[in-house]
Amino acid sequence: MSYEVNGIVLATDDRGFLLDLNEWSPEAAQVIAQQLDIALTDSHWPILHLLRQIYIDFDLAPANRAMVKVVKEKLGPDAGNSIYLMQLFGGSPARDAAKIAGLPKPPHCL
């Protein structure tokens, strides 16, 4: 699997996660989200940028429970609850948000 963004093919692993964090862009996020049938809105971007910052700081894409906790701490209780995150990113918010943010698959996500 790969994604084409602005005429450039972005390499992925066999599950569609980017192999190179530096190839991510907002345009890449749009293409990846579209493949997941997610229409990105203004509500998605703070979470995607937060996840990228966590990965840069800790070399880790958080799993669901940790994602809910950190989003709640950084973006407030309205954004940091599992129901809201599932509404934005589907049944596996940590996995799909990480994929859209250009990060590796979080540990323990199917």
Automatic annotation (TrEMBL):
Record-annotated active site: C109 (cysteine persulfide intermediate)
InterPro entries: DsrC-like_C, DsrC-like_dom_sf, DsrC-like_N, DsrC/TusE
Record's subcellular location: Cytoplasm
Keyword Cytoplasm: yes
UniProt GO MF annotations: sulfur carrier activity; transferase activity
GO annotation (BP), single: tRNA wobble position uridine thiolation
EC number from the UniProt entry: 2.8.1.-
Pfam entry (one): DsrC
Main localization of the protein described in the UniProt heading: cytoplasm
Gene Ontology terms: cellular component: cytoplasm
EC category name: transferase
Keywords attached to this entry: Cytoplasm, Transferase
The keyword Transferase is annotated on this UniProt entry: yes
Assigned protein family: Belongs to the dsrC/tusE family.
Function: Part of a sulfur-relay system.
Protein name, entry field: Sulfurtransferase
